[in-house]
């Protein structure tokens, strides 16, 4: 049983997380999966999402929807893989700020006032746990 928990620790622990490494890793992985799942409709139901963006007061640009879907999908994959975590979390935080502001507050979409804020908090939490100043402080105290 000790070997199993050691393997789980290795999967969940990543060098990028300074604060709350296990919690941060779980949040990172779950949020990453959710970002990928919620990016897919921007490609599979593209016309509807172009219309949705227009109803939020955003330009009805096909490219904007593709770019948002790509940011969510690639950012989510980066979070799951544990690579480029800080830039991915920063990008996803900005995308979710836009979703909450334009889709939720200005657009009145209930999904943008429920799931989007949760993903915003998750992305911001991952960003916070990987912040460089925290890494330097952690390195200084662990010597």
From TrEMBL:
Pfam name, any one: DoxX
Record-level GO cellular component terms: membrane
Record InterPro entries: DoxX
Coiled coil feature spans: none
Domain of life: Bacteria
Protein's cellular compartments: Membrane
Membrane topology, as annotated: Multi-pass membrane protein
Transmembrane segments: 20-41, 61-81, 88-107, 113-131
Keyword vocabulary terms for this entry: Membrane, Transmembrane, Transmembrane helix
UniProt protein name: Putative oxidoreductase
Lineage: Bacteria, Bacillati, Actinomycetota, Actinomycetes, Pseudonocardiales
